[in-house]
Structure formats: structure tokens, C-alpha cells
Specification:
single chain, about 425 residues, alpha/beta, 13-stranded mixed beta sheet, two-stranded antiparallel ribbon, about 25% helix, globular
């Protein structure tokens, strides 16, 4: 089996620079994965050689390119391809792009988005995974991705390795969210759709109208506590789908097999009505639920909490974990109830696997919440439940460093 070609460039370290940038890449792999840091060093060499590979290797079908700020000297040179007139890319089927500057002008006098559109047959693309693109990208490719089956729209990565949620709430940012919604509705009927880091939920009604009948996998996820720092509102909570929203997804996407979403719990009770609504999806076998880790109503906000260690106890208050607590007992109870809620005539629901998160467990730099690096928070938790070969519900997970505070769970109401 052919292996993916992976390139890594870290400008600050000569050893990585020497061995990480290949001098020549043969056309031996249909998949390329490249991670490039800009700031100083040989990042441009890596991008240029990647470009040369794409125009020279017609067998490439998958490209994953991540461009990030890095290195010891931070500059403003956001790498892009050195476009040459007449060069053509192979017909990619899978494309993942992070940190790409779509609006930068190339030497050919065109923007990167214009050059990309001209250089490749985008109708062959089946999977597109992209961080929040500018309006120029949406206008160029709206209604043009005729073969697309899977689309991921996510926030950009920051220097520290976490995501930067779209936390603006002015007219311009609200219009951008509407533009993303409109772009998604121009896509052909999708099997997979993932949307995250919007700051506010996109209007799902037109999206489901276009894609619901074909959707098999759907993920809608916002990050905990991101926008309270942007707004100055300490009690800001990420938006959650209501029960009518969930019912709309069930009606519009009857063949959905996998669903990821955020759910809020409060008043020391699990959201039983929401769990009941989720349990009745006719073909849902895999469910992922994100809970808040900390109670936003018990966390005080002050800028000096971020920089003055001696002021934390006096001004910042004590962060409290959300209740009811997640532990093996309560997670097992949730899983069993989900499967029992969905039963008809004594039969259990189709849900076979359940993944539960508290806190932003999937973040690249150690998980947890997106907070200043010198202000410590409890660590996130992840539980996984499944049905074994004998039909028995099993659950297991990794509790953070605060197991003692979570030993005693609150029973479902």
C-alpha cells in the first residue's frame, strides 16, 4: 500500500529545516500532507516544492496543506503558491486547507482564489475541509463544486494551536455567517457536513432543505467560553440547538447515521427531554454530545485575571465544574436511557456508540478551554460507550486530574 508523503517545516530549528524539506518528490503517492510554518527559514521552499509536485504529478488525488504562524521570527509572509501561467493541478478528490491566504495577489496578477479556480477541475472534488474562507472564495466556488459529497467548515487555527471562533456579532460578521449558509445551500446533496466555530449557529433550515435527504453524518459544534472574552460577557454560553431544532433535523435527515452536537445541562438535572428527542432518530447509530465543563454563571470575568497571578483569588472567583458531574455511573445511565427512550414495543433504539465530552477535549494543545496559557483550568473529560457482542452496554473514559471532585454523580431525573 502506498504511503502518504508528509512534509514538516519548522523554521526555528536547522535540523528540522535540513531534513524536513525534500529536495525532490517523486510521483509515488496519490496523497500529500504538508505542514508549513511561516516567520523565517525555509517555509517558502516547502510551498514552492509542493507546487512543483502538484503541477508535475498527475496521479495526486489528495492534498492536505496547513500553513501556520511559527518560528522564532514572526513575519507577515503568508505563504501561497508561486503561480505560473499555464500550470495545471491534477483533479484532486480530497482537499484540506488551513491558513491559506486566498486574497493575496500572485506574480501572475491574479488573486490566489482566481488562480486556484483556473488551475484545477473543481468538479472532481469529493471532500473539502477548509477553515473560514473569505467572501471571494464563496463567490468564486458557489455552485461550482458539482461532485462534492463531504464539506467541513471550521475556524482558523491560532498560533497556540487552538481554534479562533468567529466571535464577531456586528453586521459584517452576521452577514458573513449568512454568506456561509448560502454557500452551503449551493453545494450538491451532501453525505457529510461539519460546521464549527461560528460563534452563533447558522440557519439550518435552508441547509437541511438542500442536504437533509442525503445526509448520513452531521456535526454542529461551538467551543466553550470562546466568545465571553471577545464580548466581555462572563456569562456568555455557546449556542445550543433547541428541541425543535433537533426535531427538525430528525424530520429533514431521516437517513442520518452519525450526529455531533452541543447540549447544555443546568439546575443539577440532565436534559432528559433533549436526550429523548435524540434517541428517536430512526437510523442514528453514532451520537457525540459536548457538554460544558465549567458553569459560566459562577465564573467572574476580569482582564487582570489573565496577567496578575496574585489577583486571581481576590478578583477572579473560583471556577466550578458544571453539574451534574460526568462519571462512569452517570454516563452509563445516560447511554442506557438513550437506548431505552428510543424503543418501540419494547425494542431499544439503534444507537450503538455514544461519545460524551465535557470541555473542549479535542483542542490541539492539550484540550481544555481556550484561556491564557498561565491561567489553569480543570482538564476536560471524555467518555465512550458502546454495545458489545452480547448486546451489553459498556462505558469507559478518561477523567482528568480532578477525579475526586467527580466521584459522586447526580442521577438522571
Amino acid at each position: 500500500m502506498q504511503q502518504n508523503q508528509t512534509w514538516h517545516t519548522e523554521p526555528c530549528y536547522e535540523a528540522y529545516l535540513e531534513h524536513g524539506v525534500p529536495s525532490f518528490v517523486e510521483c509515488t503517492s496519490p496523497a500529500i500532507e504538508s505542514h508549513v510554518s511561516y516567520g523565517s527559514g525555509g517555509g517558502n521552499n516547502a510551498v514552492n516544492q509542493l507546487y512543483d509536485t502538484l503541477v508535475s504529478c498527475p496521479n495526486v488525488r489528495s492534498l492536505s496543506l496547513s500553513i501556520r504562524q511559527g518560528g522564532c521570527v514572526i513575519g507577515n509572509d503568508l505563504f501561497a503558491f508561486n503561480w505560473k501561467e499555464g500550470d495545471v493541478f491534477p483533479p484532486l478528490q480530497n482537499l484540506t486547507l488551513s491558513g491559506y491566504d486566498w486574497d493575496a495577489q500572485g506574480r501572475n496578477g491574479r488573486s490566489n482564489v482566481q488562480s486556484w479556480k483556473k488551475a484545477m477541475d473543481w468538479s472532481q472534488l469529493k471532500r473539502l475541509d477548509i477553515d473560514l474562507p473569505p467572501r471571494s472564495f464563496l463567490e468564486a466556488f458557489g455552485g461550482q463544486l458539482h461532485g462534492l459529497e463531504s464539506f467541513t467548515l471550521r475556524p482558523k487555527w491560532s498560533f497556540w494551536g487552538d481554534e479562533v471562533t468567529l466571535c464577531g456579532f456586528d453586521n459584517a460578521t452576521n452577514q458573513l455567517r449568512k454568506n456561509y449558509t448560502s454557500f452551503i445551500t449551493t453545494l450538491p446533496s451532501l453525505r457529510e457536513l461539519s460546521i464549527s466555530g461560528m460563534g452563533e449557529l447558522l440557519n439550518m433550515t435552508p441547509i437541511l432543505s438542500q442536504h437533509g435527504a442525503s445526509l448520513e453524518r452531521l456535526s454542529i459544534h461551538e467551543f466553550e467560553r470562546d466568545c465571553n472574552y471577545a464580548t466581555g460577557n462572563a456569562t456568555w454560553t455557546r449556542p445550543f440547538l433547541s428541541i425543535p431544532d433537533i426535531e427538525e433535523i430528525k424530520r429533514s435527515a431521516p437517513y442520518l447515521q452519525s450526529l455531533t452536537l452541543d447540549i447544555y445541562r443546568s439546575a443539577n438535572r440532565w436534559p432528559t427531554a433533549t436526550l429523548k428527542a435524540l434517541s428517536t432518530f430512526p437510523n442514528l447509530t453514532d451520537l457525540t454530545i459536548n457538554f460544558d465543563l465549567e458553569d459560566p454563571w459562577r465564573t467572574k470575568y476580569a482582564e487582570h485575571c489573565m496577567v496578575r497571578e496574585e489577583a486571581r483569588d481576590e478578583y477572579c472567583g473560583v471556577n466550578e465544574l458544571m453539574r451534574p458531574y460526568l462519571n462512569k455511573t452517570t454516563v452509563t445511565d445516560i447511554f442506557q436511557r438513550l437506548r431505552r427512550f428510543g424503543g418501540h414495543d419494547g425494542a431499544k433504539s439503534n444507537i450503538q456508540t455514544l461519545t460524551l465530552y465535557a470541555g473542549d477535549h479535542g483542542r490541539q494543545e492539550g484540550g481544555g478551554l481556550r484561556i491564557p496559557f498561565h491561567y489553569e483550568h480543570p482538564k476536560p473529560i471524555k467518555f465512550k460507550c458502546w454495545v458489545d457482542g452480547n448486546g451489553t452496554e459498556e462505558c469507559n473514559g478518561r477523567v482528568g486530574d480532578w477525579w475526586d471532585s467527580m466521584r459522586y454523580g447526580v442521577e438522571l431525573d
